[in-house]
Design brief:
CATH class of the largest domain: Alpha Beta
CATH architecture of the largest domain: Roll
Helix content: 55-70%
CATH topology of the largest domain: Diaminopimelate Epimerase, Chain A, domain 1
Largest sheet: 5 strands, mixed
Strand order of the largest sheet: 1-2-3-4-5
Structural class: alpha+beta
Number of strands: 5
Length: 185
């Protein structure tokens, strides 16, 4: 028992001695001052990084806008918008201008007749406009897809830009009879 008491007493003295030998106040103050200095440096660098990142993103946006405006097809979008409305979307694939024209038409023969008239009219406008600005209209083919009010494709017309001959006419298969009868009007 006495032996246990001596061992426990020694352990207690070691614990108390170990606990009291910590970092001195001057060491703590020095380390804390270094930490605060590093925090300040970090905040300055973070601020510089944020500014560089914002400048980079602004520059990237400007370059992207410049590149998009210089791409062939900007004339195609202007033509599509003037012929089919502000909701028309166009993009260029190779030497083809693809246009999505969104309408408030349904899948009827009358609607098919109206989109056909719209397509023919737009190709006349293209025929007058393209020769005056060939760099804005470098297309060999135009594909126009008309979408009905329900979002489904009503009809697609494809035309050569050289002689404006009609290449293809695709219609919604679910309503082919009505649409084809409207194209014959």
């Amino acid at each position: 028992m006495k032996r246990k008491m001596i061992i426990m007493g020694s352990a207690l003295v070691l614990c108390l001695t170990g606990c009291s030998s910590g970092v001195s106040q001057s060491e703590y103050d020095t380390l804390n001052s270094s930490y605060e200095s590093l925090q300040k440096d970090y905040q300055e660098l973070q601020s510089q990084y944020d500014k560089i990142k914002a400048d980079y993103e602004a520059s990237l946006n400007e370059e992207t806008e410049s590149l998009i405006s210089s791409l062939p097809g900007e004339g195609g979008q202007a033509w599509a918008t003037s012929c089919y409305g502000d909701d028309a979307i166009s993009f260029v694939g190779g030497d083809t201008l693809y246009v999505a024209a969104f309408t408030d038409y349904d899948m009827s023969a009358d609607s098919a007749s109206k989109v056909w008239e719209s397509f023919v009219s737009s190709m006349r406008i293209y025929g007058y406009t393209a020769p005056t600005s060939p760099s804005m209209f470098p297309f060999k083919r135009i594909d126009v897809t008309f979408y009905a009010q329900d979002g489904n494709a009503l009809a697609q017309f494809s035309s050569n830009c050289d002689d404006f001959s009609l290449n293809d006419v695709l219609v919604n298969g679910s309503h082919a009879t009505e649409i084809i009868s409207g194209l014959g009007k």
